[in-house]
Design brief:
414 residues; mainly alpha; Growth Hormone, Chain: A; 15 helices; 0% strand; globular; membrane; MFS
Length: 414
């Protein structure tokens, strides 16, 4: 069982920091667009821009943070990013109370939070690699994955209730406090962390993040998985606003049913993440990438055919559950493989490059599918996304690519 394998006290504090931050973000999921609607009377175009442009700008801000964080001790970097998120998120309820809150501030907060999240995740991956044994990486990543999905199952419904009881900025305040608690948990980790030393000429420059992309694109397994991930994550995330319009506006789903349709399937993430280690041990990593990587994309097109009523609600829940179970099984295996096949001195830049590319893909595909929905219909855009994603397994690594003088990047063994 994933939950029964001890990984040590230091990992326990790291996991606690991740968990409290994840649950805070779950409570605050979608809070900034909601504040824009409820408190600032923003237009649909402004809300869409806040959802897409803010994270995209954050990805650009994260570019120089990658080489900056590579040769610094990772725990202080993570604490700094937690405190940064706490400060900028706390500015929202303060400005709201004083009557100063505006849309421009929400854009700034969205961008800074996105950049800090990328930097935190990259530093956290490098720190995890130094903290646990190589054979325990999959167990550790599975625990993070299960925590992420459970926070999404519990957080948004509680956040909606909190907004109803305490007003539109309540969940943003809770999210800010969660990052403060995360920083405190990280400070509880004892032991001195060695400062990483550069290899060769110093890469502490904005262009140093390109070293992460060079590593990804120069590695056959990582390159294939990266290109596949860009399209899969971008197309799946691009359907969220389309489904909101389809379910709430065109099919007349009440908000509580809409929330249930996305919160309940997140519990499937607990199942998938707990199965990851067993499935890899039994079938090998290559088969997980090929088979589960294919299964996670076949369900999306079904969302284009959802109908009103209880049957439609059940259909959405079943389809989302299938997507989430397969994603949560696949993701920790991918995260482990990525750490194992990245040199220590490149981990932060590689993870940053991966996150920046993924965020840019999500923003681009969300904008394109939104434009298609405006010119046609949400169902047409959902159908298009569902058909496109069916082609993404062609980008997954093939077993035939090994054995040509290149070490097998997808071997089942560790």
């Amino acid at each position: 069982m994933v939950g029964s394998r001890p990984l040590g006290r230091k990992f326990g504090w790291l996991w606690a920091a991740y968990a409290v931050s994840a649950y805070g973000s779950g409570l605050g999921f979608g809070a900034l667009p909601l504040i824009a609607v409820l408190a600032l009377d923003a237009t649909p175009a402004e809300v869409s821009a806040l959802s897409a442009v803010g994270p995209a700008v954050g990805a650009l801000i994260a570019v120089p943070l990658a080489p900056w964080g590579e040769f610094r001790r990772k725990r202080p970097v993570m604490i700094a990013m937690d405190l940064t998120r706490c400060a900028v998120l706390a500015s929202v309820p303060v400005a709201y109370a004083l009557g100063w809150l505006g849309l421009a501030q929400l854009f700034v907060v969205s961008a800074v939070v996105a950049a800090a999240r990328i930097a935190f995740t990259a530093a956290g991956g490098a720190y995890l690699k130094s903290l646990v044994r190589p054979e325990d990486l999959l167990v550790a990543n599975s625990r993070f994955e299960s925590t992420n999905w459970s926070s999404l199952a519990v957080g948004p419904p509680l956040g909606g209730a909190a907004i109803g009881l305490f007003g539109p900025v309540a969940t943003v305040l809770a999210d800010a406090l969660s990052h403060l608690l995360s920083a405190l948990a990280l400070t509880a980790i004892r032991g001195r962390e060695e400062t990483p030393r550069p290899t060769g000429k110093s890469p502490v420059r904005a262009a140093g993040v390109l070293d992460g992309w060079r590593h990804i694109l120069g590695h056959p397994g990582l390159r294939a998985l990266y290109l596949n991930n860009l399209l899969v994550s971008g197309l799946i995330m691009a359907t969220e606003p389309l489904l909101a319009v389809l379910l709430l506006r065109q099919l007349g789903f009440p908000p509580w049913q809409y929330g249930l349709a996305f919160a309940a399937p997140c519990l499937g993430g607990l199942l998938g993440s707990r199965l990851a280690r067993r499935v890899v041990a039994r079938h090998g990593r290559h088969r997980v990438f090929r088979t589960v990587g294919t299964l996670r994309v076949v369900w999306l097109i079904g969302l284009a055919f959802v109908r009103p009523g209880v049957l439609g609600l059940v259909t959405v829940i079943v389809l989302e559950l299938a997507i989430i179970i397969t994603m949560s099984l696949y993701t920790p295996v991918l995260a482990t493989y990525r750490l194992e096949h990245t040199p220590t001195h490149l981990v932060t830049r590689t993870l940053s490059a991966w996150s920046i590319g993924q965020q840019a893909s999500i923003a681009t595909l969300t904008a394109l599918t939104g434009l298609l929905a405006d010119t046609t219909s949400p169902r047409t855009a959902l159908t298009t996304a569902g058909l496109l994603i069916l082609a993404t397994p062609l980008l997954l690594p093939r077993q035939e690519e090994t054995g040509r003088g290149v070490p097998d990047p997808l071997g089942a063994g560790y």
